[in-house]
Design a protein that fits this description.
- The protein is an alpha+beta fold.
- The chain folds into 2 domains: about 190 residues, FAD/NAD(P)-binding domain (3-Layer(bba) Sandwich), CATH 3.50.50.60; about 120 residues, D-Amino Acid Oxidase, subunit A, domain 2 (D-Amino Acid Oxidase, Chain A, domain 2).
- The chain is about 25% helix and about 30% strand.
- It has 8 helices and 20 strands.
- It has an 8-stranded mixed beta sheet. The chain has a 6-stranded mixed beta sheet with strand order 9-2-1-13-20-19, with helices on one face.
- The chain starts with 7 loop residues before the first strand and ends in an 18-residue tail after the last helix.
- About 45% of the residues are buried.
Length: about 350
Amino acid sequence: MGNGTNKRVVVIGAGIVGASLAYHLASKGANVTVVEANDIASGVTGTSFAWINTSPPPQHDPIAQLRGSAIEAYRRLEAQLPGLEIQWTGALIYGLVSDPVMSASTKRVSQSRILELEPNLKHPPEDAVYEAEQGALDAVAATHALIAGARDKGAKIFTRIPVLGFATQGTAVIGVETATGVIGADVVVLAAGTGITKLTDRLEVALPIEASPAIFIRYTSQPNLVRTLISNAEMEVRQSAQGTLLAAEDFLDDALENQPEAIALRTAVAIQNELHGVVSIEPELACVGIRPIPADGIPIIGYLPKVSGVYVCAMHPGVTLAAIVGRLASEEIIDGKASCALDPCRPDRFNRE
């Protein structure tokens, strides 16, 4: 246990990022309260493809150190929380505009190896990139496991209670205002996804977080169709441990032919064309998820400028980074241990003159 016993921390937001923060903070002895306007994992977490994708972008990666620690952080959480289950299947990537940047865990594999990994592929390429260490999870179940772990360590969880404002003393935030009263805090952590900007606006601190739509699809189908996570020009698909097929697609526009249900039907045809053994495939869910993406593409993590007592966590990909950010942010908040891996993410980069 750290030295944060009785330090009062209010976490706003109970998606996977807020849940990870709550668990790590409570593990350090903080007096944690989670306040969620809706239900646990009801925001973008509930519509996430949930690929733990640690591949760096083709250009310079300011968060390379952070991204590189993501898998180890999830392995650690997996050992601590029996309810957290991750499918470490690896990811098979081919046929895209550009191949992912090769890393230590990346291998280029031949067609024979591709068919060993994915025997149901109808059109296996001559070669592909295989990211053996990557995986995926049920983001909703993982969030509930983290919340349960936080609760076991003393955290209080309040759902369907929106934050109406902040209690302040000078330039310091000393609590959050809700319909049921003020919850006092030494530190308030903003982990409310795209809702963060409304909260920071109340504090007269502008953060450029864009609401970026993406389409998430869930199908009922036969088990054992997909063994890894496949990402190619035709589809991005994986299969859950329960046999549900999951797919992710880009949001195109609001035209009728590009509504989630229509895209789900087109993607189903693509999956049937790509895989042997798809006897039936029925869309169970097709919806738009709204991702919080900072304007410069780099996560926003750290204390707000101009006011004291407010720590922000806004990022994409949230699922990939939730475990490592939860650990490093809790060390900063409770131990005062600044992390160099988070240096590129500081909020004050948008307020420098």
